[in-house]
Amino acid sequence: MSAPRKIHQSLTRLEAFSDGVFAIAITLLVIEIKVPHLDHESTSTELLTALLALWPSYLGFAISFFAILVVWINHHRFFQSLIGSDCRLLVANGFLLFTVSAMPFPTAVLADYLTTPAASAASAVYAGSLVMLNLGFILVWRIAHSGGLLKEGSINRRLIFSLGLGFVVYLAAVFVAFISPYLSLALCMILWPYWALVER
Amino acid sequence: MSAPRKIHQSLTRLEAFSDGVFAIAITLLVIEIKVPHLDHESTSTELLTALLALWPSYLGFAISFFAILVVWINHHRFFQSLIGSDCRLLVANGFLLFTVSAMPFPTAVLADYLTTPAASAASAVYAGSLVMLNLGFILVWRIAHSGGLLKEGSINRRLIFSLGLGFVVYLAAVFVAFISPYLSLALCMILWPYWALVER
Amino acid sequence: MSAPRKIHQSLTRLEAFSDGVFAIAITLLVIEIKVPHLDHESTSTELLTALLALWPSYLGFAISFFAILVVWINHHRFFQSLIGSDCRLLVANGFLLFTVSAMPFPTAVLADYLTTPAASAASAVYAGSLVMLNLGFILVWRIAHSGGLLKEGSINRRLIFSLGLGFVVYLAAVFVAFISPYLSLALCMILWPYWALVER
Amino acid sequence: MSAPRKIHQSLTRLEAFSDGVFAIAITLLVIEIKVPHLDHESTSTELLTALLALWPSYLGFAISFFAILVVWINHHRFFQSLIGSDCRLLVANGFLLFTVSAMPFPTAVLADYLTTPAASAASAVYAGSLVMLNLGFILVWRIAHSGGLLKEGSINRRLIFSLGLGFVVYLAAVFVAFISPYLSLALCMILWPYWALVER
Hints:
The structure is a homotetramer of 200-residue chains.
Chain A: H1 12-28, H2 44-52, H3 55-80, H4 87-102, H5 104-113, H6 119-146, H7 157-176, H8 181-189, H9 192-197
């Protein structure tokens, strides 16, 4: 830290790589939705019934898709306030991408167990993965802030508030899951209208 | 809306992220085609027969590939007529990408059930997912239009007409599926020569 | 065709989208290699034996990886000789990407049946998919040429020769597969040293 | 080699394609983690127990993620010291990407067999794939060096030292695997703090 730190002006490849991981993680979610296996005498009504019964998979897909999308949108904005990157930001951003790329797994767990007696564990694990996602973003912000990588004037108070709020709400969702899995999921989504509609 | 809205000039990362999702969704389609499992005494003739029997999978793959490709081509063109993006466009574009990334699932449903008695439901679901894709694009256009993000003079009459026509045809395909699944699929493809050959 | 055709100068997004499809198709190949399922008492020797027995999968992975890589390298070079793109090039390039994104399927067929009596059919199908890949590239070249999209002086004789040679060799490999599947695979790889070592 | 070699100034598409492969390989790792299949009467406690039992999968995912991330970070830096690319660099870089895209397979082997008597073979294969990854990078460096593609003054002593050290440590991990699989994994990770914390 005491040695002169190199700040690379170019963020292009870091953004391109991050965009790649975001885009792939968000698109891989659909892979976890399995086509129902009916016998080949089944009628259209039976197929539609079986498809409707997959609603926890669709719900998980939708929640995770928009959770990752919201992170991408904020990542996109946050990087516009950076003057460059250094070694530590690459690592912190790597940890954020790690939490993003892991999302298809807890999503599949949620989809498979939301309608079973294990729903509490499934939604707690799911909300926990959103906590990690949030922590990953907080880490990136901390590293950029402490490393002097932020443009002057871009204190990003709203981002800090958003991240702190997200952390509290997602963490609450982990514990609420053991009372009501559905309330936990609702908490996971409660901030989206705020993030989507409030002009930032 | 009454607050001053920020328009970000740069569309680069939005396009890069969208291209990523389009590219991944279009390439993931092939994952749903499963290699036939024959016993290990099977001859070349039996393998070829089994591979030919997978034609609904190939058909679904081809239709979805070109359906997504056509959306990408139009997305590509449409973004050339934008002066920038704002918060709401990011969200609307996110919804479009959601419908794009979901395509492998209805494609697999179609492939698995096109030759069964449940073909009507499978092709109705499939056409329905194309309706959603179309609606996603209409939403992006509406948001860009109402947000003043379109370059002057680029009224995109052809795009509006195209989208409207697509919506009507795809919606018709949903209902036609219950009369004839194959006619429904034909409707899904009927606009491609028009989109591909007419210079826009 | 008689109407004034629009040539878009910017190839950036077309290249980015193509790169995305190439990168994903080439990386998805590994998904088709399945970890052997041994019982949980198996020893290290048994695992190594089972892993070695998967050699047709590794071979298929390697051949398809480098086949797609060679197409990407040539795509990369070819696009440097373009002045822009038009509607028809987008469609032709889309067809090329279709053949690229389909590659994981014939690769998996080859891997599963190369050591069975159905090896001839498997390698014929595989070589056939390389013929399609080659045809896709020839189509892109034809469209670019006839549309006046090539930079002056870049007649690309070597590319034309390469594509023609590839077509003949891959087509021969389809028929040779019924005599010897391994000879067919060797034909599929015979042009790589030429493409890799000859300076173009 | 005696013929005049063409050096293409633009590295943009090569970087974009490489970033795509890195991003996809790193994100596909999660696909290999399978949701546990419990019967639908299982409780939250049973689900949590089953999820905890998957720790070898999480460990493999984490190790491979950061192993690929470290290679990407170094690839990123290394390309900043290049003046351009030529035919041979494209091929060498293609080999590196081959080793990167193969990583999900040995990772899945490790995850499936780390807690079985075949752990030695699984971790030897895993460490072996890191040796290949390292060799791929060394090849890219050699080709760039011998082809005169490096900027003057960028002798990259630290990179050479890093790569050499990585090679020795990963190769040791292959042999150590037959003594202790866990020690072998520890060796695979031992260089990360050095790579992440030492400013390069």
